[in-house]
Amino acid sequence: MNTIAFLSMDDLEGYVSDDELTYAPLQKLGWNVEAVSWRNKAAHWERYAAVIVRTTWDYQKDLPAFLETLSEIERKTRLANPLQTIRWNADKVYMRPLEERGAKLVPTLWSDNIASEQQVREWFDTLRADEIIIKPTISAGAEDTFWLSPNSPEISELASVFANRSFMVQPFLRSILKEGEYSLFYFSGIYSHAVIKVPKPNDFRVQEEHGGDIQPFMATTELLNAGEAILRLLGEVPLYARIDFIRDASGHLALMELELIEPSLYLRMNEKAPRQFAQAIHAWLL
Description:
Layout: E1 2-8, H1 23-28, E2 31-37, E3 50-53, H2 63-76, E4 78-80, H3 83-89, H4 95-100, E5 109-111, H5 117-126, E6 132-136, E7 146-148, H6 158-161, E8 167-171, H7 175-178, E9 181-187, E10 190-198, E11 213-216, H8 221-231, E12 240-247, E13 253-259, H9 273-285
Parallel strand pairs: 1-2, 1-3, 3-4
Antiparallel strand pairs: 5-8, 6-7, 6-8, 9-10, 9-12, 10-11, 12-13
């Protein structure tokens, strides 16, 4: 039986992963799975028929080393998603060309410098927002993401937090607090399932690590059309993709993120999803 690797990290303590739900259906299709940390210098990547990036949820702490590892893997075996795709998707500036091709985004300011606290306060006027979100363009899990009002004390910290880091500024959309964020999942371009994520009270972060409530969701025609429109903007169909949407101030769906690196797939939220992912992997490997 051939073996594939699911690329992970050294320690998943504190995170929720359900990739193991695909192990049994993959075995039925003739594939063993080994979880291997991307930081494992002793790994022999040529042993594997393929390496699939999965729970590498600390890659943003050392992106150059992560990309170097993926480059080594791709020289020795098949990699999904491909390095070219991951390199493009690692910095959220990828959303700018998507917007140019027609994707609807939350209004966004892009910058790599905070000259003064006054500059930050001017962003509220520019975005016509009472509250804003500031986050790095290379980040994961809402790390170094700030929800601010004009008088937030955290404004004084921003210049040091974002020194030598590119970042993005968006109006805070209060729909996240009640309606939540929608995530649609696709395997080889085929829709699999959806979830809705709502933050805990007095928070804006929807991730489970931060207390977010994640529930299965029956995607509406509106959401499915929006997801397919985003996929059509890509040059190649990825093995896996998660597309996140939020409802903007005018009531329309806006793209929050297109995740092609290491998305949580929430396979446990849909009984068919583990088998669908396994079948997509199997077909990709043939």
